[in-house]
Amino acid sequence: MTGLDTLRPRLPSPLQELSDPRFARHGLRLLLKRDDLIHPELIGNKWRKLAPNLTAAAGRTVLTFGGAYSNHLRATAAAGRLLGLSTVGVVRGAELADRPLNPSLARCAADGMRLHFVDRSTYRRKTEPDTLARVLRAADAEDAYVVPEGGSNPLAVRGCRALGEELAGRANVVAIACGTGGTLAGLAAGLASDQRCLGVAVLKGGFLTADTESLQRRAFGARCGDWTIDDRFHFGGYARTTPELEAFAEDFEHRHGLPVERLYVAKLLYGLVTLAEEGAFARGTTLAAVVTGRPFP
Ligand SMILES: Cc1ncc(COP(=O)(O)O)c(C=O)c1O
């Protein structure tokens, strides 16, 4: 019993229509699927991915991985505090151990997460059994329940299927920003057969189709749902931005009063506006954009 039910998630998350001439003039409706409102601390896809894993951890220490500004590490730390679970965060970058914690890691630590810093080469090899065993030993967490970077394991992917089910019949095209592809993998599996899903990659490299397919095979046994990935809107890669993207996000916030998370949601919304302008969607299409996060103050 993890007490998740006491956290009162707002599910199904709200679906809101936006009035925006950049879509309306092409005959398109834009809906926002407000997963950022599911829970004040387990925000967006973090709830959907972490909840089944926290249940499976059954009270054991939860150990997971992330970079210095990882949303996933913060959410795991917050879950630990809220549920009384101990958590360990394995952080990329041994050099960070000797520096003051940045605000994101400071929040993790304040929530009780024990931080364990590893060098980048170890971090890259963290899924290899020998390396993982070494990291667990060094972190004094050999019995921990291990959640992968970004939280995307088969349980998490199956948890994200509910997002698709909530959207069934509500939109023709559902769009979502992708890091590991785990949320897309589950979402696409939960949509109805006449809906399609569009993933906007925020990392550079073009590996996401293969990764998402592999996550679906592990979670569901096969590729499923109608989905594609657009690799044009990463703005140089993870956490990279440009003055144009920043101006776009600020303008979106002013127009709609929506706080726009910059690493993922800004790139998704920018991609959708561009695709609408390019005529990528037939008139009469209803689009739903999933708001998977909220800016970290
Ligand atoms: C706000 C936000 N949106 C989207 C994603 C992408 O999720 P995934 O790694 O499942 O593709 C993440 C990463 O976890 C995220 O923090």
Q: Give the end-to-end Cα distance, rounded to a whole number of Å.
A: 32 Å
**Strand percentage:** 15-25%
- What value does the average pLDDT take? 97
Number of helices: 11
Which features would summarize this protein structure in a list?
11 helices, Rossmann fold, binds pyridoxal-5'-phosphate, TrpB-like_PALP, TrpB-like_PALP_sf, ACCD_DCysDesulf, Pyridoxal-phosphate dependent enzyme, 16% strand, globular, 10 strands, 2 domains, six-stranded mixed beta sheet, four-stranded parallel beta sheet, alpha/beta
Tell me the layout of helices and strands.
Elements lengths: L14 E4 L2 H4 L4 E5 L11 H13 L4 E5 L4 H13 L3 E6 L10 H8 L3 E5 L1 H5 L4 H10 L6 E2 L7 H14 L5 E6 L3 H9 L5 E6 L6 H13 L6 E4 L12 H14 L8 H13 L8 E5 L7
Helix pairs in contact: 2-3, 2-7, 3-4, 7-8, 7-9, 8-9, 10-11
Keywords: Pyridoxal phosphate
Cofactor: pyridoxal 5'-phosphate
Protein name: Pyridoxal-phosphate dependent enzyme
Please provide a written account of the structure.
By secondary structure, the protein is of the alpha/beta class. The protein has two domains: 4-41 and 153-290, Rossmann fold (3-Layer(aba) Sandwich); 61-143, Rossmann fold. Helix content is 39%, strand content 16%. The chain is built from eleven helices and ten strands. It has helices at 21-24, 45-57, 71-83, 103-110, 120-124, 129-138, 154-167, 182-190, 208-220, 243-256, 265-277; strands spanning 15-18, 29-33, 62-66, 87-92, 114-118, 145-146, 173-178, 196-201, 227-230, 286-290. The strands form two sheets. The protein has a six-stranded mixed β-sheet with strand order 1-2-10-7-8-9. Helix 2 (45-57) crosses helix 3, helix 7 packs across helix 9 and helix 10 packs across helix 11. It starts with 14 loop residues before the first strand and ends in a 7-residue tail after the last strand. Pyridoxal-5'-phosphate binds at residues 44-45, 71-72, 150, 152, 177-184, 261, 264, 292-293.
